[in-house]
Amino acid sequence: MSGRTPLVAANWKMHKVRAEARDYCTELRRRIEGVRGAEVVLFPGFTLLGTVAEALAGSSIAWGGQDLHPVPQGAHTGDVSGAQLADVGCSWVLCGHSERRQDHGESDELIGAKAAAARHSGIKPMVCIGETEEQRSSGRTFEVLDRQLAAALGAEPRPGAIAYEPVWAIGTGKTATPELAQEVHAFLRRRLEKALGSAGTALRLLYGGSVKPANAAELFAQPDIDGFLVGGAGLDPGQFFDIIGSSCA
Ligand code: 13P
After folding, report:
1. Which of 7, 95, 230 has most ligand 1 atoms within 8 Å of its beta carbon, as the pocket-test mutant?
2. Which end is more exposed in the chain, N or C (fewer Cβ atoms within 10 Å of the end residue's Cβ)?
3. What spacing in Å lies between the alpha carbon of 75 and ligand 1's midpoint?
4. Ligand 1: does its nearest atom lie under 6 Å from the Cβ of 208?
């Protein structure tokens, strides 16, 4: 037993409208009542946050934004600040998802600044890291992860959680094997402990990339996997609930 409370999150990406979000939350709330042993977070799109906040008020389920701007306010059309996320009840925010690194050219440095900005707004950043297929096949996985992790930790205070999401496993159905995921998580754990001491032992390391009800239990059985960041399967409350069920300590 690691002593770390499992953390299971659904990243809805650019899916759902308000009515769908409301139905999902009602259904997940109904199922999750009485379930203990895992912390659960939803990451809906910005326009859905108000609806999700209303639908989940008073429940044990938390919610968060999928991104934030590194400065607290100002002339940044189309962006959202940490204060705005906090205002709608977000306790978490994703930073550095590979789709943002890819689609918006986000650098490690910018992601570190976003993580720090989140902390200053009282929100826990979940920093996403992961290698591409090309980086893995050319033997650069650990070098890339080391750099991404250092940038995430460079910004004080430290992140709320780290999500390892190998880019080649996202939305492809190609899940990392439990052994491969554990190898990376053990490497990250050693790095975290070296940088942060006992706080590095306590920080939760999530796995993401084609997690489904069918593979969650064997991944969760690995000693350094503390939960999941789920994409596709997290869009369905039933499948997401089954993954949560496989992740209760
Ligand atoms: P999938 O679960 O659809 O592979 O997506 C993972 C992900 O990117 C979660 O942030």
Report:
1. 230
2. N
3. 31
4. yes
Which residue, by CA, sits nearest to atom 2 of ligand 1? 231
Establish whether residue 210 lines the binding site of ligand 1, counting it when its CB lies within 6 angstroms of any ligand atom. yes
pLDDT digits (tens, 9 = 90+) for 193-220: 999 999 999 999 999 999 999 999 999 9
Separation in Å, CA 107 to CA 5, 104, 237: 30, 9, 33
Question: Does residue 127 form part of some domain?
Answer: yes
What gap in Å lies between CA 192 and CA 177, rounded to an integer?
A: 22
pTM over 0.85: yes
| Residue numbers of the domain that contains 20 | 7-248
